[in-house]
Structures are given as C-alpha cells and as structure tokens.
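Hi there,

I know you've been waiting on this one. I reran it after we fixed the sequence typo, so this is the corrected version. Both the input and the resulting structure follow.
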Amino acid sequence: MKIKKSYSLQDLQKQFSNEFPGLKIEFFRPVYAGYEGPYDLLHYSNTTKLSAISPDVKSIEFELDDTEEVGQFEARFSKLIGVDVQVFRRSKELWLQTTKTDKWTLNRQNLKGLHSLN
C-alpha cells in the first residue's frame, strides 16, 4: 500500500479495499477521556488529505500482511502514519466495526465479509 502525503484518505481506502474487498478502513480523530460528543465529529471525511492530518508523514510502502491480526494492523498503521484507523467488515449490506474480532487476521475478516454476500 503506497502512502504519500498528497493522498486523500479515499486513496488509502481504495488501496486497502483492493487487497481486502470484504473490508474497509475508516479514519478517526483521537478520542479523549470524557468525550461524549457525536460519533460523526470523530470521523474524518474521506476527501481529507493525509498531509492535513499528519503533516510529518513520509512517503512509504506500507506492507499489508493478510496474516496480521486486525488490532495489530490498526496499531501499526496508527503509529507509523499518525492517524487512527479502524477496520470494518462487510455483513451483507452493512459494515460492522471489527472491535470484538480484532484478534482475527485480516484474511479471516476478509473471507467472512466476502461470504456474507452469498
């Protein structure tokens, strides 16, 4: 997955979903203790440029490993890129946040999402 300062979050989402069509990623502002505001205020628009969120990010090739656990992927991405990311899995016509299954690998999540379409 190519990461470039000039990319929008949508560019990153497309690359991720090309590798894992049963999954998608969304980007969020950090949650602070005691925050009780609306969920939508935490979510970045997919048209947001990466440079606007993480101005010091470097252009890199970010390896996507289908054997990596979802929670590990999210932590590694957030640490390296500087923006909080959350994986969602397709469930028929819905997208489910994978927080309860973060120990599953990206491959297992992806297969589950793809099978939900049948």
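Quick highlight: DSSP finds four helices and five strands in the chain.

Best,
R. S.
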